[in-house]
Design a protein that fits this description.
Elements (H helix, E strand, L loop, with lengths): L22 H18 L6 H15 L9 E5 L6 E3 L4 E5 H6 L3 H16 L2 H5 L8 H12 L5 H12 L3 H25 L6 H15 L6 H5 L4 H15 L11 H11 L5 H4 L4 H15 L9 H10 L4 H14 L1 H14 L5 H12 L3 H11 L7 H13 L3 H14 L3 H14 L6 H21 L4
Parallel strand pairs: 1-3
Antiparallel strand pairs: 2-3
Helix pairs in contact: 1-6, 2-4, 2-18, 4-8, 4-9, 6-7, 8-11, 9-11, 12-14, 14-15, 14-16, 15-16, 16-17, 16-18, 17-18, 18-19, 19-20, 20-21, 21-22, 22-23
The structure holds zinc ion (ZN).
Zinc ion binds next to helix 4 and helix 8.
InterPro entries: Mito/Outer_Membr_Metalloprot, Peptidase_M48, TPR-like_helical_dom_sf
Cofactor: Zn(2+)
GO molecular function: metal ion binding; metalloendopeptidase activity
Length: about 450
């Protein structure tokens, strides 16, 4: 393919006739969107998978040159799709993770979605009218981005009523997709991934969908693969990579897909026959952990040790080894988890799984202490706070259980549930001058302030 000059094709940033919403509105919309995701959709919360996806996302996000917080969620949905919601909330469907052949391909779609955020596409897409609440807008955005079974008919009518300008949206969408490809491939390359992965992935999905008599993957409906789009993406990758002699390493996607299929009960007996011995070992030990978590004889720790030795930088083998050792030899498991926490301090799934292992071994106080120390270090603490709430409730420490549940809900933007739970905790705390009571008041104030802002209508 002959290299084309791409620089001049860079699309114009934004249509001047659309008003950008302000950052306070964006924060509120992001919170309401996250609540809608948690309440109306099925999120996939396997800590290992979530941590894997967040790691890729954060790696790409750190290359955007913008100091913006992203939050990545996995949607339990077999459709091959992904979306970028308000305030940096990005969703990846389980179907997309399973359809990718390499981590680079998965990363390429994430980079594309991240670029939608950095280019502020969503805030430039919709024009809002007065008297529409943030909550309604957020649910609507979620319905458009995710539940697009019949966008054209039902949602469009609804949108008309809500005062959203669908024509404007359609007019901008092609420009936005171009921009997301353009910047996405740049971020992908800067994050150390193969910049050709985007054209490879979309090109293959398109070919497969032509062979498939059933319907095309959702993502191709919103991201039509044209010759022109593929050529542009390849050219962009060529420009970025022509001088580099990078080697792309084998990565952990295959193991992640194995655990997803196991947890989601997706039968893949054909694929399972084609695993190498390390992958086979990972799957077998994982199955035992699922079905007979306390039966020492059901594990094969030796093959896990071999896999760890062969791939010392593959965190997933080591993490599973720590989980299995926690069953066979709790003291050793505890040491392995502590070691992993030290070398991967930004991975929330390690202290989380460590706490679960401690709980299995009836060391609840230790589990609580570990999570309380670890939680403030992370941006998305929903899983950890929920776990703390659960651990406290097993100890009949109801007021603390309410408090951590309130924090979990606050973390995903659910202010009304937060306020309800804080109120319950306050009723149980006798000492109104205690430090704990003070913390409750603080959280209550924060949550009610956020709620007031969210209740304001969009202007
Ligand atoms: Zn897009």
């Amino acid at each position: 393919m002959s290299p084309l000059a791409l620089g001049s094709n860079l699309p114009d940033l934004g249509a001047p006739d659309l008003k950008d919403y302000d950052s306070q509105t964006e924060t509120s919309l992001g919170r309401a969107f996250s609540v809608a995701l948690h309440e109306q959709y099925d999120l996939f919360y396997d800590p290992t998978t979530l941590s894997y996806v967040r790691h890729i996302g954060n790696k790409i996000a750190s290359q955007t040159g913008q100091d913006r917080q992203f939050t990545f969620y996995i949607l339990n949905d077999p459709e091959v799709n992904a979306f970028a919601g308000p305030n940096g909330v990005i969703g990846i469907h389980t179907g997309l993770i399973l359809a990718a052949r390499t981590e680079d391909e998965l990363a390429s779609v994430m980079a594309h979605e991240i670029a939608h955020v950095t280019q502020r596409h969503l805030s430039r897409t919709f024009e809002y009218q007065n008297n529409v609440s943030v909550t309604s807008i957020a649910s609507l955005i979620a319905a458009i981005l995710i539940g697009s079974q019949d966008v054209s008919a039902g949602i469009a009518t609804y949108m008309g009523g809500m005062g959203l300008n669908i024509q404007q949206q359609l007019k901008n969408s092609r420009i936005h997709e171009n921009e997301a490809d353009y910047f996405g491939i740049k971020y992908l390359d800067k994050a150390g991934y193969n910049p050709y992965a985007m054209s490879d992935f979309f090109g293959r999905l398109e070919k497969e969908s032509q062979l498939n008599e059933f319907k095309a993957p959702e993502i191709l409906l919103t991201h039509p693969v044209t010759e022109e789009r593929l050529a542009k993406a390849k050219e962009r990758a060529y420009q970025l990579s022509k001088d580099s002699k990078r080697v792309y390493h084998k990565n952990s996607l295959k193991l992640i897909q194995l655990r997803m299929k196991l947890l989601l009960h997706i039968d893949d007996s054909y694929g399972d026959k084609h695993l190498d011995k390390n992958e086979q070992c990972y799957l077998e030990n994982l199955k035992s952990l699922q079905s007979t978590p306390k039966k020492v004889s059901s594990f094969n720790i030796q093959c896990l040790k071999d896999a760890t030795k062969q791939y010392p930088n593959n965190k997933l083998y080591r993490l599973l080894q720590a989980q299995v050792d926690s069953v066979i030899n709790p003291e050793l498991g505890h040491r392995e988890f502590t070691y992993l926490e030290a070398i991967y301090p930004s991975d929330f799934s390690i202290p989380y799984l460590h706490a679960l292992a401690l709980e299995q071994n009836n060391q609840i106080d230790k589990a609580i202490e570990l999570l309380r120390k670890a939680t403030p270090k992370f941006h998305s603490q929903y899983l950890m706070y929920s776990e703390l709430a659960r651990l406290f409730s097993t100890q009949n420490e109801t007021k603390y259980s309410y408090y951590y549940n309130a924090l979990a809900n606050y973390n995903i933007g659910n202010t009304s549930k937060t306020l309800y739970l804080v109120k319950q905790a306050k009723l149980l705390e006798k000492d109104k001058s205690s430090l704990f009571f003070n913390k409750l008041i603080q959280l209550e104030n924060q949550a009610s302030m956020d709620q007031k802002i969210a209740e304001q209508k969009l202007k």
